[in-house]
Amino acid sequence: MDLNKLFKAMVIAVPLFALGACSSTSDSETESSSSTSSSQTSGQSGEYANGGVETGGVAPVLSPVEQQRLKEQELRRENIIYFDFDRSEVQTKNAEILQAHGNYLVENPNVRVLIEGHADERGTPEYNIALGERRAKAIAKYLQSMGVQPSQMSFVSYGEEKPLDFSRTESGFAKNRRGVLVY
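That's the Peptidoglycan-associated lipoprotein sequence above. Prediction below.
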């Protein structure tokens, strides 16, 4: 066996604390070495830290009310409601998102929301403005049915004027057929 390989294997296998036993080390070097060693040890996790005992915090147990509040908070991050081609009906797949926004608005009567209506570029500009308005009003009507006050909502239609996707593909058109809740 090659002596260099054997020496390297031995050096890697020798624990750090064995180096601290050298009698030629001064007291200040020993203190520095031991503090470095202990800081490295304390930074470890899992089975090597704390004498081989795994430690960690327990996730807090949330009440059902708190779980629902966190879920709705996450759902409110989604503020775009998509529509089918040439349609202005709110789809059932958007119910959870609108429920979260509606609950928030009911609980916070001083908060106002602007609802933007958008359309893809197919159709005349006049038609798309009207379609965007119908989409915004459909969202407002949905929220109002949940108890949101009409005074908390306003709407505007941009028609085809503010597309999200300029690709002129079916998926691009789908992204542009939307209503947006802006707080």
